Amino acid sequence: VIPHTYLPHENVFHEGTPALALYCVRSGALKLFRRLEHGEEVVVGVRGPGDLLGLRGVLAGIPHATTATTLDRAIVCAIPGESFLELVRGNPMLGYRLLVRLARESRLTEEELVERNHCHVAKRTARFLAHQCRGEALVISTSDRGGLAMTREEMARLIGTTPETLSRTLHGLADQGILRLDRKEIQVRNLPALLKLAE
Amino acid sequence: VIPHTYLPHENVFHEGTPALALYCVRSGALKLFRRLEHGEEVVVGVRGPGDLLGLRGVLAGIPHATTATTLDRAIVCAIPGESFLELVRGNPMLGYRLLVRLARESRLTEEELVERNHCHVAKRTARFLAHQCRGEALVISTSDRGGLAMTREEMARLIGTTPETLSRTLHGLADQGILRLDRKEIQVRNLPALLKLAE
DNA sequence: CGGAATGTTGACGCTACTCAAGTCCCGTGG
DNA sequence: CCACGGGACTTGAGTAGCGTCAACATTCCG
Fold first, then answer.
1. Is A95 on the interface with B (CB under 8 A)?
2. Where are the alpha helices (DSSP H) in chain A?
3. Nearest of B181, B180, B173, B175 to residue B198 by alpha carbon
4. Which of A38, B45, B74, B185 is the most buried (most CB within 10 A)?
């Protein structure tokens, strides 16, 4: 119940630590990821305003499965786990609504992960870009208008690939006239085509 | 609340159909899978006794995301969705326990899917085999003792690969003396080594 | 201005899929 | 009983997609 402002690239909680609290995103965006033995970072999802983080750990009484890191400036409220659990136990209607929410969320996560297994990088990239520029045409990269500021490295990880492959993919899209690449900015020139690639 | 016995390879419910009921597995095993545009079948999980199927669809009031098909003979109880929801609404403790269960389940699913993205076929195969022969040494294939009866095709789909690749992988393990392959049966000759591959 | 971080590009290799022969097993029917 | 046919399984050759490594260009920033 205590809002806190995080800077970009701060951890809200860390994989493997006890789930002592749950977090409610007020503004900004965060990524949830796991780290493999290899050290590689696997992004499991991106969350924004209205989303709850760490819910499953708190409910199941197990450590957080993922690390939550801010993508940009974000305001996040921490809710102590114990008092939250008491609240839920004392408030059936809240419990029910959480149940519905968790069911929905769980399905979405499953969908995303299955998609990541079976879609090519080009499609995932198109989807990512389409999702960033909701209806509009400007996205990303050390610019501060419209989209997030992020490096190719970060973008690649969100999409689930490497910077090299992402670079090739983006330039491929640019060659088709779908994007316009300028080191600081990715401009969508042909949204319908992008959406078609994203299917 | 009506138990029903299914034969192997019967569908309990089908992806895309309204989630009118939820199902409780009494005995046997089922696979949950999605079908992609391509027509390809993606197995999302395997469920056994004590597991609930279709929970998320019923709770969220959306169609089933997956198809549930029996792997062998299975007894499954159907619980009408509406009466289940009323039961949950009228029974906070039940709701709370479901919440915990869903949280756990959701995490396990996530883990499995992430693993599938990032482990090689050999490792996933080893894991599958190790999971089948819980501590013992015999598994699978038109035999009826110990494991399930299934074709290479089915096994491949559960592991998330093709029959050809699975065949090569199995014979690779056999060459290392870890397995003994006989058309009707896969025999584990070196369980520790198998477990080490499965990590 | 120089060094570091970031982005781009090329060459290469690896994993696993696809396609296409086979081979083996089994049940069927002559 | 044997020949046959079909399905499951195996094996090989070819290939696609993408990651890795390395060289290079560019920008940022002290």
1. yes
2. 55-60, 81-89, 92-118, 121-132, 152-159, 163-175, 191-198
3. B173
4. B74
| Cβ neighbours, 10 Å, residue A129 | 25
**Tens-digit pLDDT profile for residues B178-199:** 999 987 889 899 999 999 999 8
State whether residue B103 sits within 8 Å of chain A by CB: yes
Cβ proximity of B189 and B147 under 8 Å: no
Q: Chain B residues with CB inside 8 Å of A99's CB? A: 59, 88, 95, 98-99, 102
Integer CA distances (angstroms), B14 to B32, B65, B118, B154, in order: 10, 8, 28, 18
Percent of chain B at pLDDT > 70 equals 93
Q: Where are the beta strands (DSSP E) in B7-65?
A: 11-13, 21-27, 30-35, 41-47, 52-53
Residues facing residue B197 across a β-bridge: none
Considering only the beta carbons, identify the residue of B65, B102, B109 that sits closest to A99: B102
Q: pTM for the full model?
A: 0.91
SS3 B113: helix
